[in-house]
Write a structure and sequence with these properties.
Helix content is about 45%, strand content about 15%. It has an 8-stranded parallel β-sheet. The chain starts with a strand and ends in a 5-residue tail after the last helix. It has one domain: TIM Barrel. It has about 260 residues and is α/β, with parallel strands linked by helices.
C-alpha cells in the first residue's frame, strides 16, 4: 500500500532517543516521508535526514513562529535557506512558511511574518519549487497574500485548518489540501464536510508528527506510521477503500513535489 506522509518533523527532539529505530520501522510500512523544515536549524536537520535515507525528502523554510527579531536577521536566514535548498536535490519545497496569528498578537511582528511569507514565495518561484503553507487564525491575510503574489508551482496547505473559506479558495487557487490528525478528532464537527469539499486530485495526508496524534492514539507521541488513520478517515467519508486513498494521495505527492518519483 502506497502510504506517504507528506509532512512530519523527524528532527524533533521527541525522536532523539529512538529516531533511527523509528525510521527503520517506518520504512517497512510507508513508501516515503517528507521531513519538514520550519527554522534554519530544523531545515538543516531535515536535509541531513533526507540525505541519509533514500525514502525521506525534505522541505526548507522559516515558519511564522520561527522568524527572528529583526528584518536584517530574517533576510540572512532566507539567504541561507536558499543555499540549502538549491544545493540539495532532496529538497522538494520551500516550507513550512506562512502566517500564525494564534501565537503572535503584536502587529509589528505580524507584519514581519507577512514579509517573510512573501519573500519565501519569491524564493520558491526562483528555485521552481512549490511551497508548504502553515496558517493559523490568519485565513484572510493568508489568502490575500496568495492572491496578490503568484505562486508559480503552487503548493500545499499543511495540516489544513478545517475552515470552509480557506479550503474553498485554496482549491480554487490550485493548492493541495493536506489532512492530518485533527480530521479524526471527535470534536472536529465539520471534518467530514471539509473532506467532501476537497477533490480527490487535490488531497494529501500527513501526520505532522510528533504532534497531533490521530484517534485512537491521542495523547501519545505521533509518528509517520499513523498516517494510515488519516487515510482511513478519508476513505470512510468518501466511500473509498483505504488502499485507494493511499494510492491517490501518493500520486498527488508526485504531482506537487516533482522531485519525488
Amino acid at each position: 500500500m502506497n502510504l506517504f506522509d507528506n509532512h512530519a518533523h523527524l528532527d524533533d527532539e521527541k525522536f532523539n532517543e529512538d529516531r533511527e529505530e523509528i525510521i527503520n520501522k517506518i520504512h517497512g510500512e510507508l513508501v516515503g516521508i517528507i521531513s519538514a523544515g520550519y527554522s534554519l536549524e530544523g531545515s538543516k536537520k531535515a536535509v541531513s535526514l533526507s540525505n541519509k535515507y533514500d525514502f525521506i525528502y525534505a522541505t526548507c523554510g522559516i515558519s511564522p513562529n520561527d522568524i527572528p527579531q529583526t528584518e536584517e536577521e530574517l533576510w540572512i536566514m532566507v539567504s541561507e535557506i536558499e543555499n540549502l535548498a538549491k544545493n540539495n536535490n532532496k529538497v522538494v519545497a520551500i516550507g513550512e512558511i506562512g502566517l500564525d496569528y494564534y501565537w503572535e498578537k503584536d502587529e509589528n511582528r505580524r507584519e514581519l511574518q507577512r514579509k517573510a511569507f512573501i519573500k519565501q514565495i519569491e524564493l520558491a518561484n526562483k528555485l521552481e519549487l512549490p511551497i508548504v503553507i502553515h496558517t493559523r487564525e490568519a485565513v484572510i491575510d493568508t489568502l490575500k497574500i496568495l492572491k496578490e503574489n503568484k505562486v508559480e508551482n503552487k503548493g500545499v496547505f499543511h495540516c489544513c485548518p478545517l475552515n470552509r473559506e480557506l479550503v474553498k479558495e485554496g482549491v480554487k487557487l490550485g493548492f493541495y489540501i493536506s489532512f492530518a490528525g485533527p480530521v479524526t478528532f471527535k470534536n472536529s464537527k465539520n471534518a467530514s464536510e471539509i473532506i467532501t469539499m476537497v477533490p480527490s486530485d487535490k488531497m494529501l495526508i500527513e501526520t505532522d508528527s510528533p504532534y497531533l496524534s490521530p484517534e485512537p492514539l491521542r495523547g501519545r507521541r505521533n509518528d509517520p506510521r499513523n498516517v494510515i488513520y488519516i487515510a482511513q478517515k478519508i476513505a470512510d467519508v468518501k466511500g473509498l477503500k483505504l488502499e485507494d486513498v493511499a494510492n491517490i494521495t501518493y500520486e498527488n505527492v508526485k504531482k506537487i513535489y516533482i522531485k519525488i518519483k
